[in-house]
Amino acid sequence: MANEVVDLGRRRFLTTTTSVVGGVGVVAAVVPFIKSWEPSARAKAAGAPVTQSLKKIESGQQLIVAWRSLPVFIVNRTPSQLDALPKQDSRLVDPGSNGASADQQPKYAQNQTRSIKPEWLVMVGICTHLGCVPNYVGEMKPEPFDPNWQGGYYCPCHHSRYDMAGRVYQGVPAPKNMVIPPYHFVDDTTVQIGVDPQGAA
Amino acid sequence: MANVFSNIGEWVTDRAPGLMPVYRKHMTEYYAPKNFNIWYYFGSLALLVLVNQIVTGIFLTMNYDPSASGAFDSVQYIMRDVEWGWLIRYMHTTGASLFFVVIYLHMFRGIIYGSYQKPRELVWLLGMLIFLVLMAEAFMGYVLPWGNMSFWGAKVIVSLFGTIPVIGKDLVEWIMGDFLPADATLNRFFALHVIALPLVLLLLVVLHLAALHEVGSNNPDGVDVKHGPKGNRWDPTKPADGIPFHPYYTVKDLVGVGLFLAIAAFIIFFQPTFGGWFLEHDNSIPANNLVTPAQIKPVWYFTAFYAIVRMIPSALGTAVWGVLGMFGAIVLLFLMPWIDAGKVRSIRYRGTGFKVALTLFVLAFFGLMLIGTDSTAELIPMFFGANVDVTAIENLFGRVMVLIYFGFFVFLWLYTHLGWEKTKPVPERVTTHD
Ligand code: HEM
Ligand code: FES
């Protein structure tokens, strides 16, 4: 046009401000699309506590119940399975569940058996590696994956191994002990998963 | 009649005068080295499979139901009730496996002939991006039938992102749209599998070929025909060792297409599941969020990378190391043009060290596949007796394979950057010129 001198500073200013405002607009417009991927209100609604009778679970048996769509293992551990627990300590990543696995159980289950009552194991059956459901291999007999197997869990996905308290062995991909959910005993033969015992935080 | 066609041709050329020159540039006047061998079939075969996946995929979409409650049954419906549905599905599933056969061979060609080296780095990088997108595409397709392998495959793969410190857990929920793989997950994977990723893939393939045509193809001798003598039968200014892509290589590629289709048809009609290797038995059981299949492993083309995850133990309270190992194995392939500073391209003229290292690398890749396909779990008791600690032996073997896999890249860097490589003299022209 008639202007012979190009005002470079003014041009740069306008280019920059236009780019910045445009950029902010693009970022703002992307947010709803990213947000749309988050769990919807419907997905968040699920999750009531589950009550389960223990009467029919015999010694050495495991029952799987669904809680928040997750498998919860309820195991009636035998005395020999319980005896084997302390002997595993040297082969475990975090035998006392007070290191990397400190947050994997409520305080009232942070003990040798990782439970309220020694024989009853109540545990979320999800491998801490990449989330598969480990197989219950309760018998104490040589297994292809361990000639000294003392009972426990074997994950089919990447072959992580846990003992009868869900404590992870060394040298496997899973980093932590399996999660103990909040639970309490309603009476001697009934357990409720999803609610802490009274008085426990 | 002929008149009508030439009139239409003229009419179009008048209005789009740029079309014919583009056709000539990429087909009849694209001079490719005359010494292409069997390794050069796989690019055009990859294109063929891509077209097959898109066409069969579109027809599958017409009967598939992308919901957690309907997906499994709709696949059974396609197999049993839709006229020829079984053929369309088997073409798609067989195509997926053959895609990886073809791509792995195509990539291996790039390595033996140094096709990633200057000036073709961009061709290689775009190729690697294609490989990455293809893996995502294959994984999401695998989830769609919503069988029990689909479900747990989805859970494990998405959980890989959960190993990222701090943001991992939220990221996993964001990807799945739920706390488990669920309806939301299946819906979005469907959207990505049928439209988003195929569009990206097509775009990348166009760029891949555009980048290739800028610099021209490499060849089994690894010599630059563009820098060689000029003048051939068609054009005195073009490379003496080049021949027009069309009709010479289009016709050659058609021979490859014929062979390939014969093999593909044999599989589709006689061995559609390929003994559980192309389609896994456990995926004909509907998804069950409480039970992981006892024998779970990915489809064969992912098993080498899967084995790396399995071989690397947790440390410092995190499982991230195995995941880093797996992604690292792919990242290193991206970096090949810079890791390898070799002075010659083709394996024909490279030093012995390169040949030995590459052989070991290939063996390590197959060794990892043996682990990932659970073959070692069967072989070890056969060789060492039934009472051995199978896992201990498998871990030892696998960890050595992982070391060799990564060692290849370290060695190649040292070998070429420190000038240890003793190459053979490279001929002036391709060896088969007349
Ligand atoms: C959908 C997938 C792909 C398609 C359709 C495709 C297509 C092609 C075609 C048609 C060619 C020319 C013919 C040939 O050299 O065989 C080519 C060349 C090439 N591709 Fe691919 N490609 C794909 C994936 C890849 C991948 C994953 C890589 C490796 C990372 C790759 C690396 C290369 C290289 C380095 C060349 C040049 C080879 C040479 O000149 O020696 N491509 N591709
Ligand atoms: S998910 Fe259990 S070992 Fe990987």
UniProtKB/TrEMBL annotation, chain A:
<keyword id="KW-0479">Metal-binding</keyword>
<dbReference type="GO" id="GO:0051537">
    <property type="term" value="F:2 iron, 2 sulfur cluster binding"/>
</dbReference>
<dbReference type="GO" id="GO:0016491">
    <property type="term" value="F:oxidoreductase activity"/>
</dbReference>
<keyword id="KW-0408">Iron</keyword>
<keyword id="KW-0411">Iron-sulfur</keyword>
<keyword id="KW-0812">Transmembrane</keyword>
<dbReference type="InterPro" id="IPR005805">
    <property type="entry name" value="Rieske_Fe-S_prot_C"/>
</dbReference>
<dbReference type="InterPro" id="IPR019470">
    <property type="entry name" value="Ubiq_cytC_Rdtase_Fe-S_su_TAT"/>
</dbReference>
<protein>
    <recommendedName>
        <fullName>Ubiquinol-cytochrome c reductase iron-sulfur subunit</fullName>
        <ecNumber>7.1.1.8</ecNumber>
    </recommendedName>
</protein>
<dbReference type="InterPro" id="IPR036922">
    <property type="entry name" value="Rieske_2Fe-2S_sf"/>
</dbReference>
<feature type="transmembrane region" description="Helical">
    <location>
        <begin position="12"/>
        <end position="34"/>
    </location>
</feature>
<dbReference type="InterPro" id="IPR006317">
    <property type="entry name" value="Ubiquinol_cyt_c_Rdtase_Fe-S-su"/>
</dbReference>
<feature type="compositionally biased region" description="Polar residues">
    <location>
        <begin position="98"/>
        <end position="112"/>
    </location>
</feature>
<dbReference type="GO" id="GO:0005886">
    <property type="term" value="C:plasma membrane"/>
</dbReference>
<keyword id="KW-0472">Membrane</keyword>
<feature type="region of interest" description="Disordered">
    <location>
        <begin position="85"/>
        <end position="112"/>
    </location>
</feature>
<comment type="similarity">
    <text>Belongs to the Rieske iron-sulfur protein family.</text>
</comment>
<comment type="function">
    <text>Component of the ubiquinol-cytochrome c reductase complex (complex III or cytochrome b-c1 complex), which is a respiratory chain that generates an electrochemical potential coupled to ATP synthesis.</text>
</comment>
<keyword id="KW-1278">Translocase</keyword>
<dbReference type="InterPro" id="IPR014349">
    <property type="entry name" value="Rieske_Fe-S_prot"/>
</dbReference>
<keyword id="KW-0560">Oxidoreductase</keyword>
<feature type="domain" description="Rieske">
    <location>
        <begin position="87"/>
        <end position="192"/>
    </location>
</feature>
From TrEMBL, chain B:
<keyword id="KW-0472">Membrane</keyword>
<dbReference type="GO" id="GO:0046872">
    <property type="term" value="F:metal ion binding"/>
</dbReference>
<feature type="transmembrane region" description="Helical">
    <location>
        <begin position="122"/>
        <end position="143"/>
    </location>
</feature>
<keyword id="KW-0249">Electron transport</keyword>
<feature type="transmembrane region" description="Helical">
    <location>
        <begin position="84"/>
        <end position="106"/>
    </location>
</feature>
<feature type="transmembrane region" description="Helical">
    <location>
        <begin position="322"/>
        <end position="341"/>
    </location>
</feature>
<dbReference type="GO" id="GO:0045275">
    <property type="term" value="C:respiratory chain complex III"/>
</dbReference>
<dbReference type="InterPro" id="IPR016174">
    <property type="entry name" value="Di-haem_cyt_TM"/>
</dbReference>
<keyword id="KW-0679">Respiratory chain</keyword>
<feature type="transmembrane region" description="Helical">
    <location>
        <begin position="353"/>
        <end position="372"/>
    </location>
</feature>
<dbReference type="InterPro" id="IPR036150">
    <property type="entry name" value="Cyt_b/b6_C_sf"/>
</dbReference>
<keyword id="KW-0349">Heme</keyword>
<dbReference type="InterPro" id="IPR005797">
    <property type="entry name" value="Cyt_b/b6_N"/>
</dbReference>
<dbReference type="InterPro" id="IPR030689">
    <property type="entry name" value="Cytochrome_b"/>
</dbReference>
<keyword id="KW-0813">Transport</keyword>
<comment type="function">
    <text>Component of the ubiquinol-cytochrome c reductase complex (complex III or cytochrome b-c1 complex), which is a respiratory chain that generates an electrochemical potential coupled to ATP synthesis.</text>
</comment>
<protein>
    <recommendedName>
        <fullName>Cytochrome b</fullName>
    </recommendedName>
</protein>
<feature type="binding site" description="axial binding residue">
    <location>
        <position position="193"/>
    </location>
    <ligand>
        <name>heme b b562</name>
    </ligand>
</feature>
<feature type="binding site" description="axial binding residue">
    <location>
        <position position="92"/>
    </location>
    <ligand>
        <name>heme b b562</name>
    </ligand>
</feature>
<feature type="binding site" description="axial binding residue">
    <location>
        <position position="208"/>
    </location>
    <ligand>
        <name>heme b b566</name>
    </ligand>
</feature>
<feature type="transmembrane region" description="Helical">
    <location>
        <begin position="38"/>
        <end position="64"/>
    </location>
</feature>
<comment type="similarity">
    <text>Belongs to the cytochrome b family.</text>
</comment>
